[in-house]
Amino acid sequence: MTDKTYDVVVGGAGIVGAALALSLARFAEKPDAKQSLQVALVEPKPAALPANDDEFDPRVVALNESSRLLLDELGVWQPIATTRACPYTHMQVRDSEGTGCIEFDCADIQQDNLGHIVENSLVLGHLLNAIKAQGNIDLLCPDQIKSLSPSKYKARATEEHLVLQLENSAISTSLLVAADGSRSKLRQICDFSTREWDYGHTAIVATLRGEKSHQYSAWQWFMPTGPLAFLPVQTHRADSRYVSIVWSQVHERSNELMAMTDEDFCQQLTLASEGCMGNLELVSRRHCYPLRQCHAVDYIQPRVALIGDAAHTIHPLAGQGVNLGLSDARVLTEELARWRSKGLDIGAEKVLQRYQRRRKPENLAVMTAMEGFKRLFERNELPVRFLRNLGLSGLDALAPAKNLLMKQAMGLY
């Protein structure tokens, strides 16, 4: 016996899982939806709270235009934007070992900006607020999925529902979506195969205040020991001297940086960033986490689908992780909506295969490109450095190719 039956259960209430749950529930409000979808969102950790006006969440997301449009469709972008979301209009990518540089400007593609930098907890907080106001979503938090039956792949192929055992109850569903992050327990429970390896990098994240304005620009420096990104953020008072950093370094160097005093760390960061914002001052704690690439061999099994980091994790050097995950959520919603509008089973193998066919090639392409960039800029041989700098500067002079890159990064293609 189960306590309740749902159409879809989403495991994991991070940004991607919460966006999917809200997107599926909002689908039911459309005129062509034959019947409402009942959705459960299960999250083992207590609900995240947004940072207050005087405290920054050092974890930020770089939302491209495609992701912003999805959040706008879900009714959460305006409250996010009016709280504090920092648009960036310009981006500069430099080789710290040479003169190679490429610059991107939104005016070149007739856009208002290249994207927005937003605190992770701010996006998630507004998504959860919208979910709590949505009548056909049950937020089960804190709670977690301990097991599912039938647990075997072949057995599930003939069942109409999965039974999920939670901490103190059991629920059933036509479809389980794992959105519980890079170390997905649901992926392990369902025995999905993955290909993964250690990047050899640790990422340091923090928020700092500079002497100079960031001028709504983002910067990226590539060094042999790893890339450094400056992402512009602003306070509720529109102070443009704040920046969030993602400093990915080999493990040994990261350990050295984390062991430094705040003053010494800021000095090293000022040198690495070529003083673009003058002297820097930490306004948050430093956090670090090791980086691994992981990609599921398949995103689907009978009545189970993976999205976001549960399906694919990549190096944060281009800030595309959450954008890929939100694209997963958008495509899965489209496919489930199309199937449900015909009165068909949304957990059927055909609909999940369509989702996988649409998302896997793009995710693999981005992962391959990020791995290529990482390996290219790790090379320090003189001929490689010469060709690398020549290539960056040459691409900077090719306006059509550069504009295409901007549109692809923004999801406008």
SSE topology sketch:
Blueprint (H helix, E strand, L loop, with lengths): L3 E8 L3 H13 L11 E4 L17 E4 L1 H9 L3 H8 L1 E3 L1 E6 L5 E5 L9 E5 H13 L4 E4 L6 E3 L3 H4 L5 E4 L4 E9 L6 H5 L4 E17 L6 E7 L2 E8 L8 E9 H9 L2 H11 L7 E3 L4 E10 L3 E2 L2 E3 L5 E2 L7 H21 L7 H30 L3 H15 L2 H12 L3
Helix pairs in contact: 1-4, 1-9, 9-10
Put the structure in a nutshell.
The chain is an alpha+beta fold and 413 residues long.
Question: Care to describe what's here?
Answer:
The model has no long low-confidence stretch (mean pLDDT 86). It is built from twelve helices and 20 strands. Strands 5, 6, 12, 13, 14, 15, 16, 17 and 20 form a nine-stranded mixed sheet that branches. It is globular. The protein has helices at residues 15-27, 65-73, 77-84, 120-132, 153-156, 185-189, 251-259, 262-272, 321-341, 349-378, 382-396, 399-410, and strands spanning 4-11, 39-42, 60-63, 86-88, 90-95, 101-105, 115-119, 137-140, 147-149, 162-165, 170-178, 194-210, 217-223, 226-233, 242-250, 280-282, 287-296, 300-301, 304-306, 312-313. 46% of the residues are buried. The protein starts with a strand and ends with a helix. Helix 1 runs parallel beside helix 9 and helix 9 packs antiparallel against helix 10 (349-378). It has a single domain (4-410), classed as FAD/NAD(P)-binding domain (3-Layer(bba) Sandwich), CATH 3.50.50.60. Strand 13 (217-223) and strand 14 form a beta hairpin. With 413 residues, the protein is an alpha+beta fold.
